[in-house]
């Protein structure tokens, strides 16, 4: 194996974090801002990219950092290396309510394609790069644009997603249609495309968007029940802003209640 071998334990239910146990000189790489806590004799460093190209010189480091910028991530990542004599633990937390998903890349052909903000942390040696979409439909309407993240290697990696996470195993030729925002990731042999919902009423009044993500097996697909974009939309639409109450807050009558209690309009 080229990646460091790490042990882990996932804690929590709705706000999870992953605790990683490091042996001497083992290293884990994480997204900036995901760190939760660590024991003594663990050294933290900030590096360009994911650390998989640290022996490629300045150009290799710049290329790794540039790939992260294209996926909407920060230039730098953080490494945590244990320099003690026994074992020590370091923990990383998901940034919003949801689940932490452990991925043994050796069980998935060494590569998984994920949405741009799904990666949390991984054993040193795992590469986090970019996956370009070769189909215009995916690029324009897929919700993730032309670029997604790819996680490659032979070690453990961890991704996070919102709400409950469902894992689907697709047989050859089996199709699954998913809301584009609910797709977390899939293995490399899954055929991923975007399809039009169809139907005038569905298009105008359906409220589910104009497109589905179509995934055709064989392979594994991970789906989240609560994308962060959907959660943010609900919070904004129901929060108190500069213009008064949210939608029907505190009223059995909802929006009609806002009108009756004088918040809807004035004369």
Blueprint of the fold:
Elements: E1 7-11, E2 17-22, E3 27-30, E4 35-38, E5 42-48, H1 57-70, E6 76-82, E7 88-93, E8 98-104, E9 111-114, E10 119-123, E11 127-132, H2 136-141, E12 147-152, E13 156-162, E14 165-170, E15 175-179, E16 183-187, E17 191-196, H3 200-205, E18 211-216, E19 219-224, H4 228-238, H5 255-260
Antiparallel strand pairs: 1-2, 2-7, 3-6, 3-10, 4-7, 5-6, 8-13, 9-12, 9-16, 10-13, 11-12, 14-19, 15-18, 16-19, 17-18
What is this entry, summarized?
The protein is α+β, with helices and mostly antiparallel strands and 267 residues long. It contains 5 helices and 19 strands.
Query: Distance between termini?
Result: 74 Å
Q: Radius of gyration from the CA trace?
A: 22 Å
Task: Give the % helix.
Answer: 10-25%
Q: How much of the sequence is in beta strands?
A: 35-45%
Instruction: Please state the second-level CATH architecture.
Output: 4-Layer Sandwich
What is the element string, with H for helices and E for strands?
EEEEEHEEEEEEHEEEEEEHEEHH
What labels describe this entry?
267 residues, alpha+beta, Double-stranded beta-helix, six-stranded antiparallel beta sheet, 5 helices, 19 strands, 16% helix, globular, disordered C terminus
């Amino acid at each position: 194996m080229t990646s460091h071998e790490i042990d882990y334990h996932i804690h929590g239910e709705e706000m999870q974090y992953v605790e990683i146990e490091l042996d001497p000189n083992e290293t884990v790489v994480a997204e900036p801002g995901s760190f939760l806590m660590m024991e003594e004799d663990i050294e933290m460093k900030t590096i360009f990219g994911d650390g998989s190209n640290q022996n490629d010189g300045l150009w290799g480091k710049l290329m790794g950092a540039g790939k992260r910028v294209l996926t909407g991530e920060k230039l730098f990542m953080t490494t945590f290396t244990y320099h003690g004599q026994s074992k020590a633990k370091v923990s990383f937390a998901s940034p919003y309510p949801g689940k932490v998903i452990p991925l043994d890349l050796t069980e998935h052909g060494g590569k998984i394609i994920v949405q741009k903000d799904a990666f949390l942390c991984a054993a040193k040696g795992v590469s986090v790069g970019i996956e370009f979409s070769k189909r215009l439909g995916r690029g324009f309407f897929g919700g993730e644009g032309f670029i997604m993240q790819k996680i490659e290697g032979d070690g453990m990696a961890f991704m996070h997603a919102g709400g409950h996470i469902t894992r689907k195993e697709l047989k050859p030729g089996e199709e699954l249609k998913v809301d584009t925002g609910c797709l977390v990731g899939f293995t490399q042999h899954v055929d991923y495309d975007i399809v039009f919902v169809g139907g005038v009423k569905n298009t105008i009044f359906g409220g589910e968007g104009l497109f589905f993500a179509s995934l055709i097996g064989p392979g594994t697909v991970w789906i989240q029940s609560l994308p962060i974009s959907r959660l943010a939309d609900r919070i904004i639409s129901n929060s108190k802003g500069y213009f008064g109450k949210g939608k029907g807050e505190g009223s059995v009558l909802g929006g009609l209640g806002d009108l009756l209690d004088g918040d809807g309009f004035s004369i």
